[in-house]
Write a structure and sequence with these properties.
Distance between the termini: 7 Å
Strand order of the largest sheet: 1-4
Largest sheet: 2 strands, antiparallel
Number of helices: 2
Number of strands: 4
Number of domains: 1
Shape: globular
CATH architecture: 2-Layer Sandwich
Bound molecules: iron/sulfur cluster
């Protein structure tokens, strides 16, 4: 089970994580990224590495 952490204080709602996730984990909710399909996460780390604000942490 992968644990997804999002720091909503850092998130600026750019949508990069929504675009790069291959399995649609992320959606923007009220301008902040939310891992609405967290159980689908493949731990590819694309969102974590490409978030410009370092707001995402993927823990395997
Ligand atoms: S990539 Fe980072 S800053 Fe952009 S919406 Fe996702 S979590 Fe927020
Ligand atoms: S680690 Fe990969 S599969 Fe998991 S939420 Fe981020 S982009 Fe999606």
């Amino acid at each position: 089970m992968v644990e997804i952490k999002i720091d909503t204080e850092k998130c600026v709602g750019c949508g990069t994580c929504v675009d790069v996730c291959p399995v649609g984990v992320w959606e923007l909710v009220n301008g902040k990224a939310s891992p609405v399909n967290a159980s689908e996460c493949l731990a590819c780390h694309a969102c974590e590495t490409q978030c410009p604000e370092n707001a995402i942490e993927i823990i395997e």
